[in-house]
Specification:
Chain lengths: 328, 271
């Protein structure tokens, strides 16, 4: 087998796994947009906030430590405990649920029926607020996140591929674990949406608010539920990306990468977000591998966006979205 | 006819006591008064028609009953108890189901899925039971599906139950909406112009379904309708509205001979 092809296969698999992580972030957007018509600009910041909270809880950080110290003249920084990852995760999930309830109660309850652009602007405000809140609560220095996920090159794959192709594939354990977790999460979400009573109610709310009200569905409850699930998805994405490159501000920028994924997969399709993520992930890495050397490299920065741009021109509803037909 | 006693109609149906009472309802939208001090009641098991020219406030009245509008003045009594201002979904959970004038179906779902959403208020299994599936959740789902299939058979829409509703013609959409409302086994059914846009044959079908629902399940029905023939044939009692006020209330024959109603709405024949 020619060398280039072997390298390409390795790049392909790495692309798939990168794509899975993109899909995970995009999923958070799809959930909220599907159920409430809101494009949640704050989704990336939610991932960052969730990861920061997780680290803070596990490391026993005192929330708002800098503020408390500045005001009271104390020097507290840590409670002194180290909690296991599972406790940290459960606590963070509870925090995200409370956050969902607060966001619904304080912001979106009052904006029911407003134009989409106003709802979108509210999420921009929310994003900046949460960023500042996260900084104040947990501090803005880069933090290491370790929930016990395996890291480093997968030696089994390295050896096996070396035996077959004479070249060891460099595939990170973390990526493999992330892929498996993402698949389980996505599968769970699809089953939830299709086969549970709450999922039915969510699809009803996503379709027609008035009709949903007339069959006894509480809009508020469904919105809180959806934001909580999106918060959980954000936490998972935050854990994956945070373990990879540390918990820092740039984590929130992965949300930007989700935009091309949403363009491809449509804003309201869960399977679309997955397929879109995979296509972007693979496309990015393969394009960089094949075309990058010819044009000076660094194509990963812009490839996804150019692809999204082309898609917007020729097929605005994405690959899976509903075609926008106006019945006159 | 006294307020709380029931009676038996000529064709043998039993009409019970008052189940819903609207007292001195006034509804304003800014400077416009849509409903002016209207009082009427609905008896259990009857078919009550609300009629009147366009803009009389009929849909607004139905929206007040179903919780979509909150009146500035007046009181609502449901089953003898004063009802505080409720959100529409809370009204639905009390057993009041409705259809909409302009059809509010879940366009992304099939007919069966739409009718199943009608059962949402009756689905009790929690998320944990549903995750386990076997046992409580499965039993409930089977029961709900059975009820929905019965409603679908009753309204003769079996052949389209897997069709996405967005593809259905208008008349069938109206029937699906009726099915969804029936699936929740309501105590009071509110129909907002169920015959709108239908031809004679479709109207006959819809009338037959409405009569059958009332006959077989004893469901109390309040409907807004413009077709006078339908109203006179179907209803036990009629409320007539005009410019937000009540100008007639009684049996179809009483209303037909009411001068105020004739002047406002029915018109006078000229020889």
């Amino acid at each position: 087998m020619p060398d280039q092809l072997i390298y390409a296969i390795e790049v392909f698999f790495n692309g798939l796994m990168a794509g899975v992580l993109y899909a995970l972030v995009a999923l958070g957007f799809v959930l909220i947009y599907k159920a409430s018509g809101i494009f949640n600009y704050a989704q990336g910041v939610m991932a960052l906030f969730a990861a920061m909270t997780l680290v803070g809880v596990m490391e026993g950080q005192v929330p708002f430590a800098h503020l408390i110290n500045a005001v009271l003249g104390t020097k507290v920084h840590h409670f002194g405990w180290h909690l296991p990852a599972l406790v940290g995760i459960i606590t963070t999930v509870l925090v995200m649920v409370v956050l969902a309830w607060l966001v619904q109660r304080i912001i979106f309850k009052h904006l029911v029926g407003q134009e989409p652009i106003i709802l979108f602007m509210a999420t921009i405000g929310l994003a900046y607020f949460m960023e500042g809140l996260g900084d104040m609560m947990w501090g803005s220095e880069i933090k290491k996140l370790d929930v016990g996920l395996p890291q480093g090159i997968n030696l089994w794959i390295d050896e096996t591929t070396y035996n077959i192709f004479d070249y060891g594939f460099f595939i990170d354990n973390l990526d493999i674990v992330a892929t498996v977790i993402a698949i389980i999460l996505v599968g769970g979400l699809v089953i939830f949406a299709q086969y549970t009573k709450e999922g039915r109610a969510m699809r009803a709310v996503a379709d027609d608010h008035q009709a949903a009200l007339s069959v006894g569905v509480s809009l508020n409850f469904i919105w809180i539920m959806v934001w909580s699930v999106a918060g959980f998805v954000a936490l998972v994405a935050g854990i994956m990306w945070g373990t990879k490159s540390g918990v820092q501000f740039s984590l929130s920028l992965i949300a930007l990468k989700a935009l091309p994924v949403l363009m491809l997969g449509g804003f309201t399709s869960i399977p679309g977000a997955i397929v879109g993520g995979l296509i972007i992930g693979v496309g990015e890495k393969l394009f960089e591998f094949l075309v990058g050397p010819l044009i000076g490299g660094a194509t990963e920065n812009w490839f996804a966006y150019v692809l999204a741009l082309l898609l917007l021109v020729f097929r605005p509803q994405g690959l899976f979205g509903e075609k926008i037909i106006e019945r006159v | 006819m006294s307020n709380t006693d029931g009676y038996v109609t000529e064709d043998g149906r039993t009409i019970g006591g008052v189940v819903m009472e609207m007292k001195n309802i006034t509804l304003r939208f800014g400077g416009v008064t849509a409903i002016k001090d209207i009082t009427f009641d609905i008896r259990e098991g009857e078919i009550r028609a609300i009629i009147g020219p366009n803009g009389a406030g009929k849909s607004s009245m139905l929206n007040v009953v179903s919780g979509f509008y909150v009146p500035q003045e007046g009181e609502v009594f449901f089953r003898g108890e004063k009802r505080p201002p409720l959100k529409p979904f809370e009204v639905a959970r009390q057993g009041i189901a409705r259809t909409f004038q302009n059809i509010a179906l879940f366009e992304g779902m099939s007919v069966l899925d739409n009718v199943m959403t009608g059962r949402l208020t009756q689905m009790k299994a929690g998320i944990v039971s549903q995750s386990i599936w076997r046992g409580k959740a499965e039993k409930e789902e089977v029961e709900n599906r059975e009820i929905c299939e019965r409603v679908i058979d009753f309204l003769e829409i079996q052949s389209i139950r897997k069709t996405p509703v967005s593809r259905l013609p208008y008349g069938l959409k109206k029937r699906v909406e009726l099915a969804r409302a029936l699936a929740s086994e309501p105590k009071l059914l509110l129909l907002d112009e169920p015959m709108a846009g239908m031809n004679v044959e479709e109207k006959e079908d819809m009338s037959r379904f409405i009569l059958d629902v009332n006959d077989e399940f004893g469901t109390t029905i309040a409907l807004i309708e413009h077709d006078m023939g339908v109203v006179m044939d179907l209803s036990d009692r009629v409320v007539v509205m005009d410019y937000g006020k009540k100008i007639g209330d009684g049996t179809p024959s009483e209303v037909r001979n009411n001068q105020a109603v004739i002047d406002a709405y029915l018109g006078v024949s000229h020889d």
